[in-house]
Amino acid sequence: MRSARAIPLLCLLGVVVSLAADTPVDFNREVRPILSDRCFACHGPDAAKGRKAGLRLDEYAGATTKLKSGNTAVVPGDVEKSALVQRILSEDEEDVMPPPELHRPLSQAEKEILIRWVKQGARYDPHWAFVSPRAHPVPNVSDPSWPKDSLDAFIAHAASQKGLRPSPPADRATLLRRASYALTGLPPTTAETDAFVADTSANAYEQRVDTLLASPRFGEHLAVAWLDLSRYADTWGYTGDMAMFAWPWRDWVLKALNDNKPYDQFLTEQIAGDLLPHPTQDQRVATAYNRIHRMTFEGGSTTTGSTV
Hints:
Elements (H helix, E strand, L loop, with lengths): L8 H9 L9 H12 L1 H4 L16 H5 L18 H7 L18 H12 L30 H12 L10 H13 L5 H9 L5 H11 L1 H14 L17 H12 L4 H10 L8 H6 L22
């Protein structure tokens, strides 16, 4: 990081004062996405890419270490001494961060988040996936009759903080339609709707949801996002766009999801199922995941095509 030019303290305070009551900043939800999108390319974990100015912003130690320039990017609790704050507020094209050539300037709201984060101590939290879940006290709500369980209480509490009130309950036909679309991507049949509307038992909704979860349509609907991310297609997607014999892998995905295969197994078998001890035919089929990509024979290409 180059030496930051001083910014009048009055200007700095003008931004800080606009912050809403110093609302606590959530590092993973608010700060990390900004740093990752704007800063990590030059000041991230990959030293081999030529980390600029020796500054590393993806960890606390790197962000708070004094640089060769004599500046410190982040001085926890002190926005005036933090070069990061000086840089994001600068109007000088030579000093402002992110640099103009990135073409992704920080919005006012993003600047305020970073300043509030520094002011509150610049806490770094590990990625949420590595944080053990902990119980939170169930909040009190103004209408205790609305929540059906503790999750509803959290929803009602968050809504009330934004001045929102729960909508009235949906009629039974609408409720079934919403559940069916959410779990299978398909509307309920007329017979299913009539049966649900006529069922006045206390657990009618739970039973219908269980039926939807047990339907093969559930796995098909759940698989859509994974098939898209995995680049699944029935053709090569290039030049002549010839047919690709890959549907057995698609069927493996559908069965894995409908069987509720543990996620670690779901990934392992697709990435390296053939390397497992005594792999089954299904585990070998799963590895077609690695070959779902565009293929061509054009211009003497040695690509041989993808088959399961």
